[in-house]
Amino acid sequence: MKRLFHLIILLFTVSNAIAQVISIIPKPAELSVKSGTFLLNSECSLQFDAANEEVVRIADFFNDYLQNMYGYKIEEHSEGRAIHLKISSRVKLGKEGYVLKVEQNSIAITASEPNGLFYGVQSLKHLLPIEAKDGELKIPCLDIEDQPRFKWRGNMLDVSRHFFPVSFIKKYIDILAMYKINTFQMHLTDDQGWRIEIEKYPLLTEKGAWRVGTGEEAWNPFVGPAIKGKPKYGGFYSQEEIKEIVQYAKDRFITVVPEIEMPAHSRSAHDTYPAELSCTGEPYLVFNMPDSITSDFEIPLLCAGKEETFLFLENVLEEVIELFPSEYIHIGGDEALKTRWEKCPACNKRMQDEGFNNTQELQSYFIKRIEKYVNSKGRKIIGWDEILEGGLAPNAAVMSWRGTEGGIAAAKANHKVVMSPTTHCYLDYHQFQHEKNAYPAVGSFLPVEKVYSYEPIPEELSEKEATYILGVQTNLWTEYVATTKHAEYMLLPRLQAQAEVAWTKKGLKEFSDFEKRLESDYQRLEKMGINFGDHRR
Ligand SMILES: [Zn+2]
Questions:
Q1: Which residue in the list 96, 146, 190, 428 is annotated as catalytic?
Q2: What phi, psi does 144 have (nearest 5°)?
Q3: Which of 98, 149, 169, 417 makes the best surface tag, with the fewest CB within 10 Å?
Q4: Strand order in the sheet with 82-87
């Protein structure tokens, strides 16, 4: 009996120790822990195919991590314990899957594509203790076979409401990569600023990227009101910087999806080219307030009657498509109140000529025409779920944000869908009840538990219809997020929760287990100098 008791204590201790160590986020599809440990220190060897550029880069990333976290790198040599990074067509876990085996004398990460190898390395990083003991890191022996549940594991950052420098965008991409997020949407244009250089229309960034203060607005509660008549706040990415961001993300197996908003959320364009773009021909200044515009008087739509509008958008999209190699180009399409179009002679003429009965059909015409252009360049459009109204463009994908109805309708009509409902995916909401009055944020309350509880496949869909759900995306709108530290705070740990929703098998998800893994994740973030909203407070 005493022996049995000791055995139980021993098992308890071992399982506890393991529970502390195995803190991979998102949780792998299959994991079995074995006895023994691999001891990682500077004597270990790193073995990989030096002729494969992508594999070399992945090895370098791992070494950079060791250097930053523990102060040493490992090299390739033939002696001693080794970490092997291997590409092998024998691994049948898809493009992003990998096998990770930790034995006492070797660690092997094997994948059929570099994408999977990169994710295997992310998992290995999560297996390392936060602190080395005498330069040594104990890694438990185990076997992992892993692959993602969804193809689209996305996050969007709004760089229009507040502008973030390239250095932060790179840090942000690194954070996404840590949790195997593979799609990064940049919300590049909105009423509050145009953030991408377009060579054909220099005014978009010379003027449209800057908010000029009237001295009264409180759009930026963190840095105070604008100064009357002075360019106070703004910024944009040059085309060279965009190329740098796209390449930086690509090296980390992340696709950058650009978003160019139309026909609404376009004041920054109206500010610069009013005669061509506005129904009235009147300019609308880059908006100085953080919140969405509530009065329809203030909402200009890009004119759907003028040919100049389409010429402008095609020229803009031509440069955007050149810069971003993504399969999808996001064209916005949300929150277009049609009052302006109803009063516009050019828009009314278009409706008469085309035989439209309402402005929803005009919006559908607008989006379909843009889709035709984007398709002619070999790309596809994706838009917020309002693009369903008046008839969806033939090849368009839908990002379902106003709930799940838009996503359900689109999937039933055989269109691809990314689920991104405000209820579970909007990171501009407060994450803690007690902070509701402490600082401004948009809308309601979204704690990490709720993000974690999200199931992206709606019950209403058949098995076949469910295959149209590409995945899930969280969105960080930045009306009230002015600093990089605050952006990190709003992002984490809700991003980790979404990463698990997007990657991990449904049956393996358990919040209490996720919370345990977050403990060491928090320690890692602290050591890396990344801010987060500690949900334990
Ligand atoms: Zn018009």
A1: 190
A2: -125, 135
A3: 149
A4: 30-40, 137-146, 98-102, 106-111, 82-87, 45-48
Ligand 1 centroid to Cα of residue 306, in Å, is 7
283 close to 274: Cβ distance less than 8 angstroms: yes
Q: Which residue has the tokens 């005009």?
A: 362
Question: Which CATH code of 3.30.379.10, 3.40.47.10, 3.90.550.10, 3.40.1360.10 fits the domain covering 22-146?
Answer: 3.30.379.10
Annotate 449-460 with DSSP letters as a single string: HHHHT--SS-TT
Q: In whole angstroms, give the CA distance from residue 481 to residue 108.
A: 42
Compute CA distances 315 → 198, 237, 245, 311, 439, whole Å: 9, 18, 22, 6, 40
Look at residue 267 in the predicted model and tell me its pLDDT. Answer: 86
- Kindly calculate the radius of gyration of the chain based on its CA atoms and give it in whole angstroms: 25
271 is catalytic: no
Q: What three-state secondary structure class fits 323? A: helix
Q: What is the 3-state secondary structure (H, E, C) of 171-237?
A: HHHHHHHHCCCCEEEEECEECCEECECCCCCCHHHHCCCEEECCCCCCCCCCCCCCCCCCEEEECCE
Task: Determine phi and psi for 462, rounding to 5 degrees.
Answer: -75, 170
Q: Judge contact between 427 and 448, C-beta under 8 A.
A: no
Tell me the C-alpha distance between 155 and 437, whole Å. 27
Helix (H, G, I), strand (E, B) or coil at 144: strand
Q: What is the pLDDT of residues 150-192, one digit of tens each?
A: 999 999 999 999 999 999 999 999 999 999 999 999 999 999 8
> Is position 265 annotated as part of the catalytic site?
yes
DSSP state letters, 49-100? -TT-HHHHHHHHHHHHHHHHHHS---B--SSSSEEEEEE-TT--S-TT-EEE
Q: Where are the domains of the chain?
A: 22-146, 152-528
Is 434 a known active-site residue? no
* Residue 413 exposure: Cα atoms within 13 Å on the Cβ side: 17
Q: Which amino acid is at 162?
A: H
Distance CA 390, CA 369 (A): 13
Distance 318 CA to ligand 1 centre (A): 23
Distance CA 156, CA 168 (A): 14
Tens of pLDDT, residue by residue over 93-119, are 999 999 999 999 999 999 999 999 999
Output the CA 161–ligand 1 centroid distance in Å. 26
Residue 444 has a pLDDT of 82
Q: Which CATH class is domain 152-528?
A: alpha beta
Looking at this protein, which amino acid is placed at residue 434? Answer: H
Residues of the chain short of pLDDT 70, as ranges, are 1-21, 214-231, 289-298, 437-440, 443
